[in-house]
Specification:
Length: 132
């Protein structure tokens, strides 16, 4: 193979490696939320019941304050509220049905300061069991 052929092969391989790196980075980011909460948690291996108790101890606000913060941003009726570990972030997940109708809203509320971090709509919600 000529020197130009070798250089061309190296350029193509470098471009492919760069593309593969970008694809891997994007795939890794799909499980990372775009928000920055005030409380992060790791997996302590306490089981589901032990984790729930630990999360309650770590949370600085209660479910009532989380619901109020969510409803201030998304007017409607609260269907459920859960204190969750979302990819290492301690948040309340408040599911709201809109007053005006439409898809359910899953409002992520910071368990440390009651800030609304994210609002997921309809089929974008994680684990809702709905099909597109």
């Amino acid at each position: 193979m000529s020197a130009m052929g070798k250089i061309g092969s190296v350029v193509v391989m470098s471009a492919l490696a760069g593309t593969l790196g970008l694809v891997c980075a994007l795939a890794a980011n799909t499980n990372n939320p775009s928000y920055q909460p005030s409380i992060t948690v790791g997996d302590a291996g306490d089981g589901e019941h032990g984790e729930a108790a630990r999360y309650m101890e770590l949370a600085k606000i209660d479910a009532g304050k989380a619901m109020a913060a969510a409803q201030a941003r998304v007017p409607g009726r609260v269907l459920s509220t859960a204190l969750d570990n979302e990819n290492g972030n301690l948040v309340y997940s408040v599911v709201i049905t809109l007053v005006s109708g439409g898809p359910l809203q899953d409002v992520k509320v910071d368990a440390g300061n009651a800030a609304v971090l994210q609002i997921d709509t309809g089929n974008d919600r994680e684990g809702d069991g709905e099909k597109d």
